[in-house]
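Protein in question passed on here:
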Amino acid sequence: MNTLHLKYSVEIERTRSITKAAENLYMAQPNLSKAVKELEEAIGFTIFQRTSKGVVPTLKGVDFLAHARSILDEIEKIESLSNARGMNKQIFNISIPRGSYIAQGFTQFVAELDFNQEIEVNIQETNSMQTINNIVDGRYNLGIIRYQTMYENYFMDYLAEKQLNYDQIWEFEYLAVMSKNHALSSVPEVLFEDIVKYIEIAHGDTMVPYLNIQEPVKPKGDTAVKKRIYLYERCNQFDLLSTLPATYMWVSPIPEKYLKLYGLVQRKVLFPNNKFKDMLIYPRRYAFSGLDKKFIDKLYESKNEVSFKAYK
């Protein structure tokens, strides 16, 4: 049981209709019905019954809803108290993919915070599915997801199901990043059949809604990758790439400072379906804070910087 279930139940009681409550909560009616059923199974009794007067509480439901309203009122008081105490606190949280231009934008954003005031900033680098769950669960206000455009319909349907809004940040092609000592580092435009002979470094938790997809790039033919290292930390990928010249990785364009720091180069590689999108996601009816807007500005500054240089 969570506070969302309590909120759902109180809204159904107020409207006497699951359909109307779903509209007010910006939910699909089947999802609301499922949530109520799960709640009833968890507490062990029926909260609502259908009558000629609409959906009304059972006897036990009346008692439950009284407690639910009381709990929600107390939560509202606690949140008001917390907001009053933290009026001068700079609060920002976001869940992002492991993209270097995004990390650069975040760093530039943090660098311009007022260090004379309280600061509470949370950032998580993870896969797109976890980011969506982070927003739905209320753990983060903003998220950025990355997906291959061939799977766009799956992501759009899933975001609609989860009642999330989205704005496109960038559509781009993956580049191959490698050590400047890599055998192909001097080739301006690398052939796909040549690079797949080397060791690919890949994030091991890529997923697509409704599908069991674990690889962001799926080549065709018999040139499939046979050497791969899976990892989950962006810092590890840079260390491996710079230390092991026989490795490479598919990435969104990387800021020049990271390439110089780790002795890397990024190269174009032609292959089918090499189109990706980064999308900003957030709850419906969410109002961007001043800090949210500042971060988005820095994000686009970083994106513009790498987009102008990467594809020259």
